[in-house]
Design a protein that fits this description.
This protein is mainly beta and 419 residues long. It is built from three helices and 32 strands.
Length: 419
């Protein structure tokens, strides 16, 4: 049944404990009656902060309510941890301030916001250690960690003046950071060709040396573990196996066998997916929650047939779920119970050339295919900013970033439809 632009009145029992939001003075009363308007998702709805998407019937909210731009994490970087008392869920995000971007937490139950870093300067990296309760990041050539509860900051490592390094992932026991070293020659290519359409082929074709490294966060020991004349990128530690590191051969996806793992102790490399036909592509890989599967976007060949595929570690077989062209997404992610998936869609300029792909999706496996549910109409979002979907820790929402207001903000949509 087609939904009309009516105002839905929903009685929501908000079990909030009347806490003040640290970034904005506001008090939420218990059992408050909230009127939620039905609106087209866009600037007007974002300013309203909570709305029912008039196309999909799903409730959307502007999750972070603070001044300035706010950005959620890249899709495969975990932003979640429990509150210090273990009762609530926290999400770490980056927010713009007068002293550069800073890291904050938002309590997903109370919506309380806490600024956890204060050091001046632009911060790269978005790495959360939920066990040690630290966020790791880089300012220029130096790596730091800040404790999420105490805000105590620790200097970890400074790269030598003649080395360009970038730390990007933390291993499962939270003792090692890993990342890539690049040459100054490669960095000059980036500087002279800032647009992805310009540098992507140039970096690939240059075949300059890159190295993978680790840094021990306790002893501060630096170790180069692997080097190759290739663009090594998209570096991720397994969430469950401390010594297993995944990386990719970056470049035009139809020219590379992209997805690799390396055991940082034995230094054994293993290709995860071998291309089988001309112009086949596999990419935007990520680990399952249990670390047993690497999921990735698979197209055989590029822009023709679409799958969400999973390579099961230690086994030869793959799982492949077929997708329709319009359901293809720049990034996919997996639910906490590992039973369903989410996707952030894409505009017509993306690889799928979808005519109607600007949606956020929830996917449920059915046989060898994925059945999609549209959650958010993204026609008023500029896909130059990739939404990068995450499931909330309870599995009830999809959290994403969008630019409905003209700057980057963080939103959440309920997976369950509101009637």
């Amino acid at each position: 049944m087609k939904l009309t632009n009516l105002t839905l009145t929903l009685l929501i029992a908000l079990n909030f404990s009347c806490k003040k939001n640290k970034s904005k003075d506001s008090i939420v009363a218990e059992h408050e009656v909230v009127q939620i308007p039905m609106m087209e998702t866009g600037k007007e709805s974002s300013l309203a902060k909570v709305w029912i998407d008039s196309t999909t019937g799903h409730k959307v909210e502007k999750l972070v309510d603070r001044e300035g731009g706010n950005r959620s994490f890249y899709f495969h970087n975990n932003p979640f941890l429990k509150s210090m008392d273990g009762k609530d869920d926290l999400m770490v995000f980056s927010g713009q301030t007068e002293t550069g971007n800073q890291f904050f937490t938002i309590n997903l139950q109370t919506r309380e916001i806490d600024q956890i870093t204060h050091r001046v300067g632009g911060k790269r990296g978005e790495i959360v250690g939920p066990k040690t309760r630290k966020v790791f990041y880089q300012i220029k050539d130096s790596v730091f960690s800040t404790h999420i509860d105490t805000h105590e900051t620790e200097f970890i490592y400074k790269f030598d003046n003649d080395i360009l390094g970038s730390a990007s992932t933390l291993n499962a026991d939270e003792t090692l950071l890993a990342g890539a070293l690049i040459t100054k020659e490669e960095n000059e290519i980036f500087k002279k060709n800032p647009a992805k359409s310009s540098y992507f082929d140039k970096i690939y074709e240059a075949k300059l040396e890159r190295s993978l490294f680790t840094i021990n966060v306790n002893t501060k020991a630096f170790n180069t573990i692997y080097s190759e004349n290739a663009w090594l990128n998209h570096i991720q530690f397994s969430p469950t196996i401390p010594e297993l590191l995944m990386y990719c051969h970056e470049g035009p996806w139809h020219k590379v066998d992209r997805i690799w793992t390396i055991n940082i102790e034995t230094l054994k490399n293993e290709l995860m997916h071998k291309r089988t036909v001309e112009r086949e592509i596999a990419g935007h890989e990520f680990f399952s929650r249990d670390g047993k599967t690497i999921w990735f976007d698979l197209q055989i060949p590029r822009s023709v047939t679409f799958y969400l595929a999973g390579k099961h570690l230690g086994k030869e077989e793959e799982t492949r779920y077929a997708l329709k062209r319009d359901e293809w997404s720049i990034h996919f992610n997996i639910s906490p119970d590992q039973k369903t998936f989410a996707g952030d869609g894409g505009d017509p300029g993306q690889v799928a050339r979808a005519k109607d792909g600007m949606w956020l999706y929830h996917f449920t496996p059915q046989g060898d295919s994925l059945v999609s549910t549209k959650l958010v109409n993204m026609k008023n979002h500029n896909y130059d900013l990739e939404p990068n979907v995450h499931f909330s820790p309870d599995g009830n929402q999809i959290i994403f970033r969008a630019n409905f207001e003209g700057n980057t903000q963080i939103y959440a949509v309920d997976i369950k439809k509101h009637h």
